């Protein structure tokens, strides 16, 4: 396999796609998938850090992230599934029966029991009934347009023990801090009126920067207050209104829930989402990946392939680790486009270079462990040892050494020396 540049720049020589030249395929494979990877020219290391002073962070949808790369430095990360026809197999396909059974068992462990979901759904239904009444017969202090259920409860990816449903409440004007207090008090009053009289004292409410939460009998409704999209163009008084960023994030949550409901129709997607959310709780380098990026990554791993074949649960799980290990969420990657934002917005645009490097590095270690039968440790099955990312571990007689971080944060520019003008 040739990784030699064919007249392109250094960065393009290390990464890229399959090109045909005079009938010969020049395969440019992401180096981090095979060994340690280093950028040439502008970026150095797997995480990519600019040489010289680092540019200021740029506001991206979902948070502040590093500046985007120039268009000529964008590459498509290596995808083993899409490149399968270019590599002749030297060994038969592995039997994924045990891995499949382990993933299904882990998914069942992570799925909330029916009675837990029923209690939460009961509270959602009560709040829906209250809001529907207020829309038809509004009260002076509350001007509600509509209510939407969002988040993992709506998507069907909620984890066991997470007894919280996210709700977006849309009002017809720019919400003020006073509006939040009025809505919170009104909702508590009307929700308590629908609870058993002897247990009403158990209900509690708590305000937060985007709205408030209502908790009863262990089930929590997390209410985010926002407004109609056109109202976000109005002038916002930071001392009076909710932050514009919070208003937009709540509206984005509605788009995310709608998109996921319409597109994530395969059960393997929801299974992988739960597995990755469990990773987020257990594995340090996954903690900086937000839920929406997890949704998009799971959908891409299960659905995005040119041959149109339906992948099994183990194939989706393995492909997800392969894509992460190959750098799909690294700085120069074409990545996964956010389908709910205008233009081309990368799903991981909010992540810092350090976090992107940690994720790719950790995924490489997980993939090597999986390749040598370490699925029980990866999934944290009962009785399995805890997987480590600091020391070498043996799996099936093979020593797996954790990948080393490649990103080096550039030194801060030194302060210029002061002169007296002489």
What does this structure look like?
By secondary structure, the chain is of the alpha+beta class. The protein is 36% helix and 14% strand. The protein is built from twelve helices and 13 strands. A five-stranded mixed sheet has the order 7-8-11-10-9, sandwiched between helices. The protein has a two-stranded antiparallel ribbon with strand order 1-2. Strands 3-4 form a two-stranded antiparallel ribbon. A hairpin with a 4-residue loop joins strand 3 and strand 4. Helix 8 packs across helix 9. It is globular, with a radius of gyration of 25 Å. It starts with 9 loop residues before the first helix and ends in a 22-residue tail after the last strand. The N terminus is likely disordered.
Question: Features of this protein?
Answer:
alpha+beta; two-stranded antiparallel sheet; 13 strands; 5-stranded mixed sheet; 422 residues; 12 helices
Gist of the model:
The chain has 422 residues and is an alpha+beta fold. The protein is built from 12 helices and 13 strands.
What order do the helices and strands follow?
HEEHEEEEHHEHEHEEEHHHHHHEE
Portion of residues within helices: 25-40%
Approximately how much beta-strand content do the residues carry? Answer: 5-15%
Q: Look at the structure and give the mean pLDDT.
A: 82
Counting DSSP E segments of at least 2 residues, the number of strands comes to 13
N- to C-terminal separation?
62 Å
Adjacency order of strands in the biggest sheet: 7-8-11-10-9
* Radius of gyration, CA atoms, in whole angstroms: 25 Å
Q: Structural class of the secondary elements?
A: alpha+beta
Count of helix runs: 12
Low confidence ranges: 1-62
Main sheet makeup: 5 strands, mixed
Shape call: globular
């Amino acid at each position: 396999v040739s990784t030699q540049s064919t007249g392109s720049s250094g960065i393009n020589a290390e990464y890229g796609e399959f090109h045909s030249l005079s009938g010969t395929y020049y395969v440019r494979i992401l180096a981090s998938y095979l060994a340690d990877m280093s950028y040439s020219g502008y970026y150095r290391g797997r995480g990519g850090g600019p040489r010289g002073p680092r540019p200021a962070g740029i506001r991206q949808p979902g948070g502040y992230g590093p500046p985007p790369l120039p268009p000529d430095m964008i590459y498509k990360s290596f995808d083993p599934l899409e490149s399968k026809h270019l590599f002749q197999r030297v060994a038969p396909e592995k039997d994924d029966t045990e891995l499949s059974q382990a993933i299904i068992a882990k998914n069942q462990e992570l799925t909330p029991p029916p009675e837990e979901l029923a209690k939460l759904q009961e509270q959602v239904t009560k709040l829906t009934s209250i809001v529907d009444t207020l829309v038809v017969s509004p009260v002076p202090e509350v001007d509600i347009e509509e209510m939407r259920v969002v988040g993992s409860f709506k998507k069907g990816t909620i984890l066991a023990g997470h007894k919280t449903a996210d709700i977006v409440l849309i009002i017809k004007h720019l919400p003020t801090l006073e509006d939040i207090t009025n809505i919170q008090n009104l909702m508590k009053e009307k929700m308590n009126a629908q609870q058993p009289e002897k247990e009403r004292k158990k209900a509690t409410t708590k305000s937060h920067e985007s709205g408030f939460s209502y908790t009863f009998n262990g089930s929590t409704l997390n209410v985010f207050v926002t407004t109609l999209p056109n109202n976000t163009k109005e002038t916002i008084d930071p001392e009076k209104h909710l932050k514009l960023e919070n208003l937009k994030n709540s509206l984005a949550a509605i788009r995310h829930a709608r998109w996921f409901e319409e597109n994530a129709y395969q059960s393997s997607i929801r299974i992988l989402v739960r597995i990755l959310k469990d990773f987020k709780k257990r594995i340090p380098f996954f903690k900086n990946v937000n839920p929406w990026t997890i949704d998009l990554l799971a959908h891409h791993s299960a659905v995005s392939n040119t041959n149109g074949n339906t992948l099994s649960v183990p194939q989706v799980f393995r492909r997800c680790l392969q894509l992460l290990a190959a750098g799909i969420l690294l700085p120069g990657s074409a990545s996964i486009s956010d389908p709910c934002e205008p233009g081309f917005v990368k799903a991981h645009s909010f992540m810092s270079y350090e976090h992107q490097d940690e994720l790719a590095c950790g995924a490489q270690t997980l993939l090597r462990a999986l390749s040598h039968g370490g699925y029980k440790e990866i999934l944290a099955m009962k009785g399995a040892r805890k997987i480590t990312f600091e020391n070498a571990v043996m799996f099936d007689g093979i020593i797996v050494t954790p990948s080393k971080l490649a990103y080096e944060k550039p030194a801060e520019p030194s302060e210029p020396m002061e002169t007296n003008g002489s």
